[in-house]
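Re: that chain you flagged

S.,

Sorry for the slow reply, it's been a week of failed gels. I finally had a moment to sit down with the sequence you sent. For the record, here it is as I used it:
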Amino acid sequence: MQEDFLHYIWRFKKFDFGNARTVSGLPVTIISTGTANLNSGPDFFNAKMNIGEQLWAGNVEIHINSTDWYLHNHETDPNYDNVILHVVWKDDVEIFRKDNSPIPTLELQHLIPEITLQNYRNLLIAPNDKWINCEKDFGKFEDFEMNNWLERMYFERLQDKSEVILELLKNSGNNWEEVLFKLLAKNFGLNVNGGAFLNMAQSIDFKIIQKNQNSQLALEALFLGQSGLLDGHIEDVQFSKFQKEYKFLKNKFRLENDYVERAKFFRLRPNNFPNIRLSQLAGLYHKVPHLFSKIIKAKDKSQLHEIFDVETSDYWKTHYSFDKPHPSKRKPLTKNFKDLLIINTLIPLRFCYSKKTGVGASEDILELMEEIISEKNGITAKFNKLRENTSINALQSQALLHLKSNYCDKNLCLNCNFGIKLIQGFR
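Prediction finished late last night. Pasting the structure tokens below so you have them in one place:
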């Protein structure tokens, strides 16, 4: 038995409340179950009910056993002085407030329908070797309820990402262009070098980027040098040019890179080598001034893709690493990479900006995400196996990633619309 289950039972009155009585025999008539409290203190605020002939208004605390009241030291905590009802699975001891007045207790174990208990056991207490608790029933959910819940999951994911963006915004003095640069740097690094690229971006005052936007050589040398990719000595003319330019910029702007995380090449495909990605990032900032405003004004995916039509500098068209030439080959940002930038950087930033400015953008965001094909990974593949075509577009794939990590993996089925439907039983 989990306390979350009792919260669900109480919140939605999924018990025989018509026959509810305190353990002392007083009838309980619920007018309002109250508002769930997600922070410290009693579990439900501002409940309202008749206990016997007395009308009560106050808080409700929920436990598996009555003795949990004492295990949690509520009897000495003034936050629990206004508890009007203690709701438990099993009553095993009488409880009192700090002033020694008894608290009415409602025991639920004989009031919950057996089918509800069985559905709960099947979902959350059955063998735990399942990928997700509802995997046997996941294919039964209808398209309407699936789409509604996944849309909710996606906006929850955007909200989580907003917290990071707002922190960056605060630290930048509300400079949206600077925040965009840091987010782009992180995402240009992908999983392997995301942290290192963000570290590099944070080590450079954004004003330095703006002052050097007219020179791709300067930007490239700056990014490569701060990432530790110009350390040492290599017999290569371009390496020497970069190194000389970086030394000049480092002295001019008093830059430090001793504590910047070094970029990695290990297990990366050549097109994702850090020097290639940093050259493309430099090309973007050289080509597109006032990048943030252009992204905010872009009306659809094609316009965003056009903004990111950039490639490496000429040297990298014939190199993947210094002093190892290959036949000339352009290395632009690919369509898939642009889509990843839209998913992981541009949409979260636009969402955050719209919230900050009070300009609604939810429909535009949904339409844009539905234009982009679903990300392919182990999680989306598994969901598609459980229910065909669950993840077709990027909105769905992002929502499913959020659902899996924030609900399924944490067994929060009773906070999920799918889990609640299974507890209630398909009708």
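What I noticed first: Residues 172-333 form one domain.

Talk soon,
D.
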